[in-house]
Design brief:
single chain; alpha+beta; 2 helices
Length: 74
């Protein structure tokens, strides 16, 4: 049995594994803070990021990246 998770890499932090809902929450918080979006515009932006890319530009020398991975459950 396997489940889809994302490896998340952020500036100055160790890698972490998040499931889809947790990654979406992280992106919501990040996009809301950076772009001052809320409501449906925020949800559309998060969906677009999840569907089309694996990184969010935070600024010079800063990064937020995520990569799909499968974790085998025993």
């Amino acid at each position: 049995m396997s489940e889809d998770y994302f490896v998340v890499l952020r500036t100055g932090q160790s890698e972490e594994f998040l499931d889809r809902p947790a990654l979406e929450d992280l992106l919501r918080a990040t996009v809301s803070a950076c772009e001052k979006l809320e409501g449906e515009k925020l949800e559309q932006r998060v969906r677009n990021l999840m569907d089309t890319t694996c990184e969010y530009p935070l600024g010079p020398s800063e990064y937020l990246e995520w990569y799909l991975t499968r974790l085998e459950k025993s």
